[in-house]
Structure formats: structure tokens, C-alpha cells
Amino acid sequence: MKKVLTIAGSDSSGGAGIQADLKTMNSHKVYGMSVITALTAQNTTGVYGVFESSPEFVSKQMDTIFTDIYPDAVKIGMVSNKEIISVIADKLIQYKAKKIVLDPVMVATSGSKLCKDDSIEMLINKLIPLATVITPNIQEAQVLCGFEIQSKEDMQRAAVKISESYSGYILIKGGHLTFSSDDLLYCNGKFMWYEQTRIESQNTHGTGCTLSSAIACNLAEGYDIKTSIQNSKEYITGALKAGLNIGKGRGPLNHCWNL
Predict the structure, then answer these.
(1) Would you say residue 144 lies in a domain?
(2) Pairing of strands 169-172, 183-187
(3) Number of Cα atoms under 13 Å in the Cβ half of residue 201
(4) pLDDT tens for residues 186-225?
(5) What are the residue numbers of the active site?
(6) Positive or negative, the Cα torsion across 134, 139, 142, 144?
(7) Per-residue pLDDT, 110
(8) Is 127 inside any structural domain?
(9) What is the CATH number of the domain that holds 40?
């Protein structure tokens, strides 16, 4: 059985974060492990509190995992402060972690801010360069590139701009555009579009967490980047189309639709 580690925050409502990651890993039949960077008090209507782990405890969690059950792939989600980001980067380098999928989580689906301003620079300069692939949505890509994204052409310009300081794969998710939901993969001057029909659903809580975890699962199984993303998008489409309707706000996906 392949082993995948998620480094992220806990979602008490179970739709995003660590909980979504582990459900996704179960559905992909890999062995899931977790390093919890923060506890959040949240549900489908918003985030109502964040209690961060200490950098020392994040370090200890990573030590216990990498020295015992070495992961075949790593997914990184919510990392809310620069000290935690620094520790994670140092440990990934120390243990020579491979196949790293980084979802630069800055804003929750509900609109709640999950990343401190002073941590963004540390994320860009120290953690992102270690990733095999990063998976920003439109809002996050705007932060990384420094300009507004309103079209597919803007997505291409943003990918090129981000690549000036990052040599890995860049997957910009287009779901937040009003006229398209196509995703763009970019690396080494080459663009690849993943076209899809928009699925009309308000229940999208944890979609980004789920996609990045699915990509990590596929990479752990030995698929290449392009195939891993394609497989993961098919999984997300099924989870959205399953039509789960839980909670009073933006509900979660059905992570187990394929079981």
C-alpha cells in the first residue's frame, strides 16, 4: 500500500483540511497520515476560530512520521504562519521528501482568511520552491503573480509570472472565473488546458484540499503529473455530481462517492 502524508489544518466540520485529505486518501486506497498545523472551529458557513500548533510540535510530528512510515507523496495545505512554514521546509529538505503537492491555502471557500500576511513571503521563498506542483485557485494565483486575473489569457500570464521564481508545475484552477471553469497546467514554457463543464453546485467546501490530496495519491501510485491531475479532476467531478447536501452553508463533497 502506498503512503501519503498531509500537512494541513483540521476542519472540525469534516469537509476540508485534514479530514477531507484523509477521506480522499481512503477513497484512493492509500495509507493516509497527517501533520496538523492548526485546529480550526469551522463549518459550512465560515471559520470561527483558529488555534495554531507550535512550530516545535509540527517538527515533532514530522520527525515521527518520516523516521517510521516514510511517505511516497506529501500534500501541503493550510500553513498559517512563517515559523511553521520554515519548520516544514527544513524538515522536507532534511528527509528528502519527494512528490510534494502544495495547495497555497490563503482563503477558505467561505471567504475567511486562513494565512497571515507575513507568512506569504516565507511561503513563496522557502516552501513553494520545494514543491513538485502547486495548485492555486484564481485568488491565490493573484497573490502569487501580483495582478488581477479575469480571463484564460490572464491565467497564462500569471503562470508565466509565477514561474519566474518557481521551476515546478503550476496548476491554476479556473473555477472562480465567471465564464469558464477550465484549469491550466504550466511548466517550462508549455501550457496544457483541462477543459470541463461547470458543475452547478453550492456545495464546494474543501474542493481545493480534495483535489490536491487526490493528485498526491496519484503521484504516490506512480502516475505522471498530467495523468495524476486528469485522474484527480475526474474524482472531483464525481464527488461534486454525487449531490451531497449537508450543512446550512457551502456543504462538502461526497469524498466516498466511488466506494
Answers:
(1) no
(2) antiparallel
(3) 23
(4) 999 999 999 877 787 888 899 999 999 999 999 999 999 9
(5) 173, 204, 206-209
(6) negative
(7) 55
(8) yes
(9) 3.40.1190.20
